[in-house]
Amino acid sequence: MKFDxxxxxxxxxxxxxxxxxxxxxxxxxxxxxFIQKVFEIYEAKDVTSSMIRDWIVHLSENKITNRSINRKxxxxxxxxxxLLKIQELEINPLLKILPVKTSTRNPVFIMQxxxxxxxxxxxxxxxxxxxxxxxxxxxxxxxxxxxxxFNLEEKDFxxxxxxxxIFGKRRKERIVPMHKEIIDLLYQYLEQKNIIxxxxxxxxxxRDCSPISIYQLNIIVRExxxxxxxxxxxxxxxxxxxxxxxxxxxxxxxxxxxxxxxASLEATQIYxxxxxxxxxxxxxxxxxxxx
Length: 291
Known about the structure:
CATH architecture of the largest domain: Orthogonal Bundle
CATH class of the largest domain: Mainly Alpha
CATH superfamily of the largest domain: Intergrase catalytic core
Shape: globular
Largest sheet: 3 strands, antiparallel
Radius of gyration: 23 Å
């Protein structure tokens, strides 16, 4: 099976991120290896629904989680739709393939008391300390994804309107407000950044003015969240926290959807489970007949 044209299509026309394209490439290669080894099939047009079902069973027997299996099915579905689009297939073998059942998993988030302590903790007053504080503030105040923060440029900030322009998945643009504390912190950081060097468009840099890496970003967040009670200490936890806190304070779910850059309301509704738990807690504490 040939994947090069499809991968190029994802990159140039669909504008998928490098991370997504890497994941899709791995999924497709794994599927190709299985189909060739088990069925001696080398062309996509010869793949059948029953072969795909055998592949799903194979993944399950190898302890791949249902959530990961569904992601791989999504990859395969996208690939075969592409083949239909360019008329290399007449029938999509994925039509009869349904996602496997997964258990509902509520997003993990940081409690507001913990988050206030993290935001107000003392950071070093040097360049790296100001930068690290800015990273935490931006993630929590905007709910942006790790990749979106990583790709932020200085020109994406409108200080007069107090807005940030964020480019999400597939380069979809959205505008998110920023509060005065972030603007003040940005001025402090950019003053330090201009001292160490100029010319780098990316917002977040090291002391030598080179852009920070995704690995560094993960480490900075992990260390900053070390005092929180959550097990996973990642940038995405701050996205969950942003959404949950907004909904807990009564924000409209459609507004939260737009702030997060979700394409569908369904993706945002996972956060309502956390707010329902809060309502139950308030009910038990305050209602006279809750016992």
